[in-house]
Amino acid sequence: MSALARQARSLRIVRAVFLASIGIYACVGEVMVQGGHEVDIHLEIGIAVCAVLDIAVAFFFRQKTSNSALEVLRSDPENVQAIGRWGTGQLVSLVLAESVLLFGFALRFLGAPLLHSVPYYLVSLVLLLWFRPAEADF
Predict the structure, then answer these.
(1) For residue 138, is it within any domain?
(2) Which pTM value belongs to this model?
(3) Which of 13, 22, 47, 77 is the most exposed place for a label (fewest CB within 10 A)?
(4) Which own/partner contact pairs does 58-67 have at CB distance under 8 Å and 24+ positions apart?
(5) Average confidence score pLDDT of the chain
(6) How many domains does the chain have?
């Protein structure tokens, strides 16, 4: 197995764990929080702004790091530095997608109604499905 295939396999495992964690966090949030109450609207807006910025950074970092490394990998699939840059870009974008979930979990943990957290869970799910590390990219 090539270094590139090992890196892609590791990233797919991380992605699968992150996808499974969406359900886990949603369940934990429901078990730990009994009933919802109003959370300060300024806090909710602040968390929403942070989540949007988080998404923007994820796309920017993925574009900047992974796509530039892909150009090198298309011509030299065994380039260790390019594999590292590609893997870093993939991993950071997955972690940033997961952090959107954590913003929703934090809201729920603070007592916000479930309906205020669900959009964060869904956006995280969509991002994790979108940021698919696959060897087919090469």
Answers:
(1) no
(2) 0.89
(3) 13
(4) 58/92, 58/93, 58/96, 58/97, 58/127, 58/131, 59/93, 61/89, 61/92, 61/93, 61/96, 62/89, 62/90, 62/92, 62/93, 62/131, 64/89, 65/89, 65/92, 66/90, 66/93
(5) 90
(6) 1
